């Protein structure tokens, strides 16, 4: 009984993990049809923000929940102004440019902080379920994923900004004709997407430690989740994360973590063969 | 590429330079320089593989290193097990080709769009890299060859004359063999591109819908192009493995895929000379920068990539060609045309 509970908890945590990893990317992809190849490095930047600010005596929750999103969000806006905005309409070029940015960031951060892992203490400690020890932090991750999705949903559904965003997502030309400055919408989108990514990176930091090359370990999972999900930000992310999270976690239980990622990829390939536009390209088409 | 290969002077220039380097370099240069050159030759083959599928098939693969690494590991495992290097070299072409066809089936028969294609190819290479990195234990071995995980596979056999496992090639001979492979692949690709098959791929690159409305099977065509590119990359990987007599997961890394992209971008997409020139130029630059040791090489690679996308999207060879063409037409116009026609030309 306890064991089943632990496994169920691990499953939910794996799904929450994928949701956190890929939400920022999904926001940018859903709105702009661009995959930010520097996504992993944006996560890394969020992690480093936590390390540096807690090193200067800032409370770790403040660093995670407030500072990391702000820092990475601002960085995202700068990147959008300097690079991305010149490449609208040239999707492949924007992928290449963001990949260049990713390497530039890895190299740059290595030059500044060195190529070593800096640990962050996991807050809250552990608790026991029967004979098993479970970190309380897992619940923070699950709660954060749920809260994040709820906030995105509420913003898109009930605010003026969300209305503008949905209009731009559906038909950028028509929105432009109706007087919406789509270029500014894209800039804001990229900034918000980056902020969410920074938030995710900050939450990951205590679990993995931070190192300049940490991004590489997460991008496979987040890219796969976003493209299998398709263009709908919330439904897509949730459906893909649910499906792929359970597959990879199941595989991890059976064979160990190495084949978890491979199983993730195989499942995604088969799925994309059947649904080339992602899950929300065919099913739940009109959803958010 | 519309004109036939036989009538293109650029083709003869490239083959001529190639043959000249192949025969003169070993006589003129010292051993160390020859080995440097060998590295450029191997990587040029790798660059050609991406240059072909991107420039002439419209397939932008972000994970070309997956094939490079697959070829390298195939060669390493097979040659250590067999003791000979001839069949492993062939295998290093065939297995990545088959893998390319299988992956291509999923991607092109699913009609994935550009962004999805880029992400899937990248992720395939990434997961291959992760898997290889985790094979350090002794339980991961194929026959006599231990995969070695992040430690790599050491003591991979040097090439020998087919049929005679004792007759190893010395570095100068190896350089000549590799140069011959590069020239053969260049010529083969030029003729492939000029053939009906190649013209159809270019048509698909230009307008996929139109090509399929004209009755061509876009999906099959793309799978074949992608598989050929995979095979060539695999061959390059095998050459790399035997040249270094060592192979590790870095050959599958994202950096390797990115390098190929940067070479092709720098040289010029849609040419075959471009990727080779881009590869040699940038590898040489990396070598020079490596001796400075102040700046991180990955940061430099990334910066070059961004600058190329933003400032020189066409690449060196097409830009140079355009400038040369403009100069040539200006030069031709000057003597035998009066002011009136020149004005008319300007207004066109």
From TrEMBL, chain A:
Its main location: membrane. Keywords: Amino-acid transport, Cell membrane, Membrane, Transmembrane, Transmembrane helix, Transport. GO terms for cellular component: plasma membrane. Signal peptide: none annotated. GO terms for molecular function: transmembrane transporter activity. It is a multi-pass membrane protein. One of its GO terms (biological process) is amino acid transport. It comes from the Bacteria. The chain crosses the membrane at residues 12-35, 61-84, 96-117, 137-156, 184-206, 218-244, 256-275. It is found in: Cell membrane. Coiled coil: none annotated. Belongs to the binding-protein-dependent transport system permease family. LivHM subfamily. This is Urea ABC transporter. It comes from Puniceibacterium antarcticum.
TrEMBL record, chain B:
The keyword Transmembrane helix applies. GO terms for molecular function: branched-chain amino acid transmembrane transporter activity. GO terms for cellular component: plasma membrane. Keywords: Cell membrane, Membrane, Transmembrane, Transmembrane helix. Signal peptide: none annotated. It comes from the Bacteria. The chain crosses the membrane at residues 12-33, 40-67, 87-108, 115-132, 174-193, 223-241, 261-282, 294-312. It is a multi-pass membrane protein. It holds the Pfam family BPD_transp_2. It is found in: Cell membrane. PANTHER family: ABC TRANSPORTER ATP-BINDING PROTEIN (PTHR30482:SF17), HIGH-AFFINITY BRANCHED-CHAIN AMINO ACID TRANSPORT SYSTEM PERMEASE (PTHR30482). This is Urea ABC transporter. It comes from Puniceibacterium antarcticum.
């Amino acid at each position: 009984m306890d064991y089943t509970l632990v496994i169920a908890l691990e499953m939910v945590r794996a799904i929450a993990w994928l949701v956190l990893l890929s939400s920022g990317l999904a926001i940018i992809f859903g709105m702009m049809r661009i995959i930010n190849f520097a996504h992993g490095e944006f996560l890394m930047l969020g992690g480093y923000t936590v390390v540096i600010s807690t090193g200067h005596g800032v409370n770790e929750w403040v660093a995670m929940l407030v500072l990391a999103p702000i820092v990475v969000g601002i960085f995202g806006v700068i990147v959008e102004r300097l690079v991305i905005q010149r490449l609208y309409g040239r999707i492949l070029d924007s992928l290449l440019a963001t990949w260049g940015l990713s390497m530039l960031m890895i190299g740059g951060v290595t030059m500044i902080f060195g190529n070593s892992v800096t640990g962050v203490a996991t807050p809250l400690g552990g608790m026991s379920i029967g004979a098993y020890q479970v970190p309380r932090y897992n619940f923070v991750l699950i709660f954060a994923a749920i809260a994040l999705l709820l906030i995105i949903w509420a913003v898109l559904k009930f605010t003026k900004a969300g209305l503008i965003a949905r209009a731009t997502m559906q038909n950028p030309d028509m929105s432009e004709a109706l007087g919406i400055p789509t270029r500014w919408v894209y800039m804001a989108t990229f900034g918000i997407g980056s902020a969410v990514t920074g938030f995710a990176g900050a939450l990951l930091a205590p679990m993995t430690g931070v190192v300049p090359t940490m991004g590489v370990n997460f991008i496979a999972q987040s890219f796969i989740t976003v493209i299998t999900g398709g263009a709908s930000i919330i439904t897509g992310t949730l459906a893909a994360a649910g499906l792929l999270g359970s597959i990879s976690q199941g595989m991890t239980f059976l064979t160990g973590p190495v084949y978890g990622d491979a199983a993730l990829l195989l499942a995604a390939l088969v799925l994309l063969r059947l649904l080339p536009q992602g899950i929300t390209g065919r099913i739940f088409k009109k959803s958010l | 590429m519309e004109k036939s290969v036989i009538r293109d002077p650029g083709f003869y220039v490239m083959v001529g330079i190639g043959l000249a380097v192949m025969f003169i370099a070993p006589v003129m240069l010292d051993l160390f320089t020859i080995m440097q050159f060998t590295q450029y030759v191997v990587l040029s083959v790798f660059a050609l593989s991406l240059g072909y599928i991107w420039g002439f098939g419209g397939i932008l693969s972000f994970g070309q290193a997956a094939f490079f690494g697959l070829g390298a590991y195939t060669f390493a495992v097979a040659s250590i097990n067999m003791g000979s290097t001839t069949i492993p070299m062939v295998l290093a072409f065939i297995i990545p080709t088959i893998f390319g066809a299988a992956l291509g089936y999923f991607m092109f028969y699913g009609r994935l769009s550009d962004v999805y294609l880029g992400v899937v190819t990248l992720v395939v290479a990434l997961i291959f890299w992760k898997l290889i990195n985790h094979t350090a234990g002794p339980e991961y071995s194929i026959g006599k060859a231990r995969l070695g995980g992040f430690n790599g596979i050491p003591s991979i056999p040097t090439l020998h004359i087919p049929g005679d496992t004792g007759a190893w090639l010395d570095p100068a001979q190896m350089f000549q063999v590799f140069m011959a492979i590069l020239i053969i692949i260049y010529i083969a690709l030029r003729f492939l591109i000029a053939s009906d098959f190649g013209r159809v791929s270019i048509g698909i690159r230009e307008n996929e819908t139109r090509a399929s409305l004209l009755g061509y099977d876009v999906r099959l065509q793309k799978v074949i192009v992608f598989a050929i590119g995979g095979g060539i990359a695999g061959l390059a990987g095998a050459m790399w493995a035997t040249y270094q007599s060592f192979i590790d997961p870095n050959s599958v890394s994202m950096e390797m895929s990115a390098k190929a992209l940067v070479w092709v971008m720098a040289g010029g997409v849609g040419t075959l000379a471009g990727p080779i020139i881009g590869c040699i130029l940038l590898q040489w630059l990396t070598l020079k920068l490596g001796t400075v040791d102040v700046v991180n090489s990955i940061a430099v690679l990334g910066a070059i990539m961004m600058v190329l996308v933003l400032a020189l999207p066409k690449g060196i060879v097409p830009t140079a060609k355009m400038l040369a063409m403009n100069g040539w037409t200006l030069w031709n116009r000057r003597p035998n045309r009066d002011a009136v026609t020149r004005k008319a030309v300007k207004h066109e």
